Amino acid sequence: MTLIKENFMVTNASSGSPAVNPQLYRTLSISTILQAEKQDRFLQLGELNQLTTFLNSGSKRLDIASVIAQNANLIVAKAADRIFVGGSSISYLERPQAAVTISEEEQNQSKQTKELTGNVQVNLLDNLKSLFSSGESAPTGFKPINVVRYGPNRMKKSLRDLDWFLRYLTYAIVAGDPNILSVNIQGLRELIENACSSAATLVALKEMKRTALSIFVEDAESREIVNNYFNVILSGFTSPGLTDQLRKRASLDVQGLRLPRVYSQAGVPVQKFAMKPGLSAVEKVDVIKACYRQVFERDISKAYSLSISNLESQLKIGQISTKEFIRALGKSELYRKEFYEPFVNSRVVELGCRHFLGRGLSSLEEFQKYFSILSTKGLSGLVDSFINSNEYSDYFGEETVPYLRGFGVEAQECRNWGVQIKLFNYSAPFKKTPQFITLFSDYKDTLPDQHPYGKGNDPLEIQFGAIFPSNTKNSYSRPAPFGKDSRRILVRKGPGIYNQLSNPAARATTTGLSGIKIFDSSSKDISKSSVLKAVYLRVFGRLIYEKEKASFAALEDKFLSGNISVKELIRQLSKSDIFRSLYWNPLYICKAIEYIHNRLLGRPTYGRREINKYFNIAYKEGYYKVIDSIIDSREYSEVFNDKIVPYERYNTPAGVSLRSLG
Length: 662
Description:
Layout lengths: L1 E3 L6 E4 L13 H11 L6 H12 L1 H13 L1 H12 E2 L18 H6 L1 H4 L9 H10 L11 E2 H4 L1 H24 L3 H7 L2 H8 L2 H18 L4 H19 L6 E2 L11 E2 L1 H6 L14 H16 L3 H4 L5 H8 L5 H9 L2 H7 L5 H13 L6 H24 L2 H6 L21 H8 L11 H8 L84 H13 L5 H5 L2 H8 L5 H9 L2 H7 L5 H13 L6 H14 L1 H9 L2 H7 L12 H7 L3
Parallel strand pairs: 3-4
Antiparallel strand pairs: 1-2, 5-6
Helix pairs in contact: 3-9, 4-9, 4-12, 9-13, 10-13, 12-13, 18-21, 20-21, 25-28, 30-31, 30-32, 31-32
């Protein structure tokens, strides 16, 4: 992640964090194995039996998904029949479906199955009769929708949405993970209500469930599976939308305090252990082992055949709380030997924050506070400062064992996310070098002029992004880009006096360029049609298609007849929808500016200052003004004037090599 201050587009340092998306699936095998791994144990007999059942049911789940997929057209048609009147609704389903595979024997065994015709020529009265005959009352606000009034575009979207629900049902059944449905569906009701009718959607989903169940009329096991997964859909759809999860903190310098609930709901749940009255002896042992894993990062009774028996006994009989047990572990000789003596004080603070608060440090100020406590009061004082804090009481109280509060549990601060992920790794105690303090110090120093993203090499090459002096450096966590004044070797021919550093007036000089042909519309040796072709290649990066070319017919006529210049032709092409679809719409703004700048001026942007200028124009005045500012610039006029097609002006040896076949 990158720290972006409130002042426009300023990046000070990178925390080295990866891009993270919510995991929208979670199979039983993944959840079971991760849970056992977190508790540092083998899979238990009950978990193995669950996995056996899950794996043995794989063929059954695949068969169910296959049958539903084959009958998808039918299921969606019956659902559409229920909510649409006055036309053939199924004709608006764009995706071609497989043929219906219900056998004659199944059709004869169920009256419902006999009615699975997919014929949508029904009227309003028939729809209402069908609704009440299913044994379910219509939800409040439901009214059948007229196909003609609804319109073809909205019909296509509605049929697509019904098909989407059914597809995700099959995904969940194949994965054996209802979480796929709950995470993706919860909160859709408000969204659909704004576009269509949530009551109609609910009626359609219930009809899809009824139709799907009728297909498996003779297979009780399959019916139960399908019924359970459809119930997840209905429950998720009727539930209110997910709210953000807030992070409780008293500090005034925190960031990223909101976590979308979809992330925490989709993540692997963190098992929390608490020593409560009435626990069995086995459960109390599990709580004690969880304390060891959190404080010592391993189960010391298993790894080293060690235990603190007197403290364990006091905890089991209730003489001390879990909080005091954790405090005693932090002040023990074993903790001192493992996490204090081998490390410098900075790293001791980082590890202590992980062990007792379940997170990494938040800021330089917080680090300085705990570092001062460790320096003046020693390890005992540091442990007390963590455990006596309001944060510890808010999250863990007297009974709960501290746990890692990482991604999926609560919101993460983007400025230290990367190093916190490293702190949570199993290998963290083996790394002696402090990481948070190093990162926080970087935030105090502004980096040299740079592109605000990327880890490529030189932006003058085919790749774009920041420049880094050495490929052996970790450019994610320790960026060290060049500034705009960095010197590069450019492939040219001719006297060195023509370089722009020693002679800025030589900017328009074309001699010395290697392998570059200049297309000048005023030259008698080059035809207007050749110049036009060169303009298309330069602006779009490829020859345009005949259909695209037809939209530029009038513009071509003006150019070929001499009514507009090369410069004006390039301006109009750059403002076209085709150019925008290539270099503006699919890209984020900084990347788009780099591409457009290179296409129109023949060189990449020099650095942050130039990027910021065009970004500001795009933000305040829009896309067309960005194009005008580049083409109307002094540099464009000096290099290309009104007659020359822009060409690639900066070629480095590596760039030439990348373009060569041999």
